[in-house]
Amino acid sequence: MNVMIKFVLDYLGYIIRGDKKYYLWLGFLALFIIPWLYGNFMQLKYGMIVTGLTDQVSWGLYLANFVFLVGVAAGAVTVVFPAYVYKFEPLHKVSVLGEMLAVASVVMCLLFVLMHMGRPDRLWHMIPVIGIYNFPHSMLTWDVLVLTVYLFLNLIGGFYFLYKKYAGEPLNNKFYLPVIFIAIGWAISIHTVTAFLINTMPARPMWHHGMMPIRFISTAFAAGPALIIIVFLTIRKNTALWIEDKAIDLLSTIVVACLTIALFLTMSEVVTELYHPTEHSAGLQYLILGKHGLENLVPFFWGSLVAMVLGWVLLMIPSIRKNYNVLSFICAMLFLGIWIEKGMGLLIPGSIPTPIGEFTQYSPTLLEIGNCLGNWAIGFIIMTLLLKGAIGILLGDVKYSK
Amino acid sequence: MNKFNLGTLKMFLVAGVVMLGAPDAFSEEVVCFESRKGASEVTKKDISEGWPNVKCSPKTGAVLWWGDPFDGTQPMGEMPIEADYLKGEAVVKPRTGKLALYAICGVACHNGTFPVKNDDRNPRTLIMHQDVVPDAMNLQHGRGGIWCLDCHHSDKRNKLVDNFGNEISFDQSQKLCGKCHGPVYRDWRDGIHGKRIGEWASDGKKRWFVCTECHNPHDVQQGERNRGFAQLHPEPAPILPKGIYNKDHEQHHGSGANKEDAVESGDH
Amino acid sequence: MSDTKIPLVDITTRATHENNSVSEWRPADDDVNVDKPSSPSRRKFIKKSAGVTTASLIGTAALVTGSDNVQANTSWAEHFQGNYRLMSDEEKAEAIDRLEKRYSLEYEKEVTVDGTDAQEGVLFGYALNIQKCIGCRRCVKACVEENNQSRGDEQEIEWIRVLKMEKGEFTQEKLNDGYPGDYGIQVGGNAYSAAGVVLEGEHYYEPEAVPEGDSHYMPIACMQCEKPPCVKVCPVRTTYREPDGPVVIDYNWCIGCRMCIGACPYWARRFNWGEPQLPKEEMNPKTHYLGNRPRMKGVVEKCTFCIQRIRHGRYPACVEVCPVGARKFGNLLDPNSEVRRVLDRKRVFRLKAEANTYPKFFYFVD
């Protein structure tokens, strides 16, 4: 017990200390919390009328970010899977960082979902026993379940590892490995269920097809490791923790492979829907070409397509893939491209046109954007702190001493 | 209820035929029309505090909502055969009291001796009533197949007439219209044509709207319409959603490639 | 099925209630048995004794404190009430009583909140003659007058949407358009190019007069599906199908996740993005818990076939207002009802039948 208390104190003590760069980075992120506070206050006071959402497009930026971040959370498995299934040592050493990233992503997901709710004060209605949990009928209850369990799996797996490392004790593999392997499978489930959340609705023909889960997974496993590469390269540059080239190379290979599948699926969908367009194609037409003079998503679609294709081509070239000076930028470009593709590009045109054929547009308000940036900033703060602590323990800076 | 209600009086004043009651009483009245303009109307009043008899559209003056669906009604009386109703459960709003010339037309003009009774049913120039029947010489109702006396009683002008020469009240126009419009009449009796307000149960109390409350038999071809109902102003459109500033995007029907091109060049 | 008539329970009971100012419309005399276990007459009894029961401390507190605090206390109690469908009769009566107090204070008139349950042997259905509709939108506005939706520029909620559909055109000129050669494509483009052929409706049409000769009109509202996708997706079962057919929402239980809005193939659900704007003088004081009682921000609402009216025998507001009698309503289990007659005799279709939602709202033509 003593060790446990000491662990918490040492851990907290370590993560709040850092160099100037560290504080600058955290301070920069904290700046976004000011508009976030204001935005949340306004939204709670006046309702969601402060957003750009309408009855026509009732799912917007909040849910788009949610869907994307579930992918990022699931993408953490690209670190854990090779480490434990293929016993890939360069990643095995740092696999706890993947878990920390997953935790931060799920927290961001929850923030976005909370913000999406019209009545966050009534969330207790979803708690079984005191409320009603419409399981297994409602896909949203599945999503809540898988996300919550995934959060705990990663918290338990990650912090158990860190604690044992801190205390200098060996891992109890009978406990630890099942947690890890369940978490690996679970990562797939969170993004699959999130895809099911929207593709099980025949009312929205653009989403209503069986390709959605695999598209979700493939883009997630491109965006997730892209972010992880950026994080790893940043860690290499700024801390004493050295992440091997081999680890980064494997991740960039995964990005290329998954991106290939994602682009292929996008191509399949575009050809299927647009060769002979039916009502299923209206959303896609609006997204790609604009429809009836409404075209505010068109630049986003083409922008994201360019980013993804360009990134994909560049990463196919070994010399560029292994040039760590540009790899971060390519990964950032891909991350942004996939964010647009899955957020703006997939979620919003699903509501345009409405099920009874009304074409509208959606433009988020500044307040809404501020809230989203705030959520990201909070997520990155959590990620930074979690990674800092984990790195400290991995390096041996934080360890139990009597 | 007073047979000559306020609405009736107002009509009389407008017609300038009689002077009854005090004109001051009408100054604040809101009169709304029920189905079509020019037919049944209702004067807005409070049944009890905060509960009006009707709510009306500020834009068109149409009744939007009835606080009491049976306000000003009377039993329909003898119903045509086969109709589903319980006696006393079918009510209508009498129309005779609302017709401007009704009270005098059977006395002052068509009193049986003057004008000279004329059973000639062929269309000819009318001296009177051109205002009521704009296309009298080329009556579109029946496409030339009928004329005034096929519907109006030949010597009792405040009555309509059936196939056997029997009188029909202006309150029961369905008996007249049913002479020709058989299938519609059947649907109306069964409650699947026409308008009813009140209770939904098949044996519930309903106010039945009779033919002329919705259709104008003297003017069946008015305007651009392609239906049996006269054109009127629609209620306001919904407000445009956020992010949409005009309704141009709605004007692209068929959405063919050519039209899309035309739109992009601003030519539509 | 000879006796499908609804005993107009609540109205009769209310007529004997001392402060009954809103139930002016009364059907012809009905000797009704008012003592159904959950009927409102019982509710009235409970209401009178609620002040001395301890069934709910919070609820009681709300009742016995001064009127200044009533609003705050009732909303506090409202916040912790359960799902309406699962409440006991006592809890329902308390919830309704709280609401009546709060609404009466807020809207400065006596507001009644009805809790009448479904009648046995009744399944409500609706039929709309699409051939007759003239697109006048009176149904849309009548619905707003009846159902206490938010109105005004800031937030306008309408449950019915009327689409204007053009009849399209085939013209001689287009015979020479297109490619290849002489094969004209009437909808534009050529035989190889993708041309959307679906005629989309206009939602915001506003001509000087309707009906226009070149158009027909298509009103759309909640279809009260037998297999409602919205009910299935709701994570907290706040929306459910009532035994007599309508799909209703417990506004006090809704968490505002809008899954149901996404799932509805008919775009029938609306969200209170902000605090609803409902002027006191325009508020309809005769409400039902599951129907037209005033809503709060952040919850979803929709058509209930005017549950506050139909549970007492009255036609829905849109049926009554339709100037051309295009809207027909009644008991689907009664072969003599208007809606059944339509189904028996007319050519009927359901909107988006392919969605397998089994609407109880039918479109028909003569």
Structure write-up:
The complex is a heterotrimer of chains A (402), B (268) and C (366). Chain A is mainly alpha-helical and 402 residues long. Chain A has a single domain (2-395), classed as Formate dehydrogenase/DMSO reductase fold, CATH 1.20.1630. Helix content of chain A is 71%, strand content 0%. Chain A starts with a helix and ends in a 7-residue tail after the last helix. Chain B is an alpha+beta fold and 268 residues long. Helices cover 18% and strands 12% of the residues of chain B. In chain B, the strands form 5 sheets. A 4-stranded mixed beta sheet of chain B has the order 7-8-12-11, with no helix packed on it. With 366 residues, chain C is of the alpha+beta class. Among the domains of chain C are: 1-6 and 119-167 and 214-366, Alpha-Beta Plaits (2-Layer Sandwich), CATH 3.30.70; 168-206, no CATH class. Helices cover 26% and strands 13% of the residues of chain C. In chain C, the strands form 5 sheets. Chain C has a 4-stranded mixed beta sheet. A two-stranded parallel sheet of chain C has the order 1-8. In chain C, β5 and β6 form a beta hairpin. In chain C, α2 (40-49) crosses α5 (89-107) and α4 packs across α5 (89-107). The model of chain C is unreliable at 1-66 (pLDDT under 50). Chains in contact: A-B, A-C, B-C.
By CATH reckoning, the class of chain A would read: Mainly Alpha
Question: Main beta sheet of chain C, described?
Answer: 4 strands, mixed
Report, as a whole number of angstroms, the end-to-end distance of chain C. 26 Å
The percentage of residues in β strands of chain A lies in under 5%
Average of the residue pLDDT scores of chain C: 82
CATH topology of chain A: Formate dehydrogenase/DMSO reductase fold
Please identify the structural class of chain C as seen in this structure: alpha+beta
Show the helix and strand layout:
The complex is a heterotrimer of chains A (402), B (268) and C (366).
Chain A: H1 2-15, H2 20-31, H3 33-46, H4 61-75, H5 77-84, H6 89-92, H7 95-116, H8 139-167, H9 173-199, H10 212-238, H11 245-275, H12 282-288, H13 298-316, H14 318-321, H15 324-347, H16 366-395
Chain B: H1 6-15, E1 31-33, E2 41-43, E3 46-48, E4 51-52, E5 54-56, E6 63-66, E7 74-75, E8 90-92, H2 102-109, H3 148-151, E9 160-161, E10 167-168, H4 173-177, H5 182-189, E11 196-198, E12 206-208, H6 211-214, H7 257-264
Parallel strand pairs in B: 8-12
Antiparallel strand pairs in B: 1-2, 3-4, 5-6, 7-8, 9-10, 11-12
Chain C: H1 9-16, H2 40-49, H3 57-64, H4 67-79, H5 89-107, E1 112-114, E2 124-129, H6 138-147, E3 161-166, E4 215-220, H7 229-233, E5 239-241, E6 247-249, H8 259-263, E7 270-271, E8 286-288, E9 300-301, H9 307-310, H10 317-321, E10 327-331, H11 338-345, E11 347-349, E12 361-365
Parallel strand pairs in C: 1-8, 2-12
Antiparallel strand pairs in C: 2-10, 3-4, 5-6, 7-9, 11-12
Helix pairs in contact in C: 2-5, 3-4, 4-5
